[in-house]
């Protein structure tokens, strides 16, 4: 579980927790990674063409926590990505992470492409940004080469319903792995 939220106790983490409950109830082991707690820089577009080692070697030149997360992704059976919705889009930490991930996943030499992935996008406020964020999540995860099996848009207003849905979704997702 890759989370782009800062709070471990807020609505976005609660939505992720419901998915995890369903997965663990079905026998899966789940590790949660909170991106804002780690050092994950934005892509530097290292060379004059806007690329770097990522273009040919499926690795990033930046020395931060990114390689450790990538190693966990490569050994995982499936991935879930959870983000709060900011301005109808992914959180800044999720966007920065996925921007770098899609660069190293483009050649498929590292075992990322084709893995099942699921997304959760949780909107506060009026909640209208959840569908647009879900579409962005699909584009980004597909661009990384994941097999996107579902993206669940959640609004603050339907949180109780969606927590039940996410528990069931977690159980279903676990059965695919």
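-> sequence recovered:
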């Amino acid at each position: 579980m890759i989370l782009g939220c800062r709070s471990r106790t807020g609505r976005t983490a609660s939505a992720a927790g419901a998915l995890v409950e369903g997965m663990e109830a079905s026998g899966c082991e789940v590790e949660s990674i909170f991106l804002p707690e780690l050092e994950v820089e934005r892509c530097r577009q290292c060379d004059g063409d806007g690329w770097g080692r990522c273009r040919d070697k499926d690795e990033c030149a930046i020395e931060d926590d990114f390689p450790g997360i990538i190693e966990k992704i490569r050994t995982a059976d499936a991935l879930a990505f959870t983000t709060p919705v900011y301005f109808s889009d992914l959180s800044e930490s999720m966007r920065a992470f996925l921007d770098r991930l899609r660069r190293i996943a483009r050649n498929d030499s590292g075992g990322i492409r084709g893995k099942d992935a699921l997304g959760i996008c949780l909107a506060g406020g009026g909640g209208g940004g959840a569908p647009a964020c879900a579409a962005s999540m699909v584009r980004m995860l597909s661009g990384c080469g994941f097999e996107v099996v579902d993206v669940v848009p959640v609004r603050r207003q339907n949180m109780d319903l969606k927590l039940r849905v996410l528990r069931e979704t977690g159980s279903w997702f676990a059965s695919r792995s």
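The radius of gyration is 16 Å.
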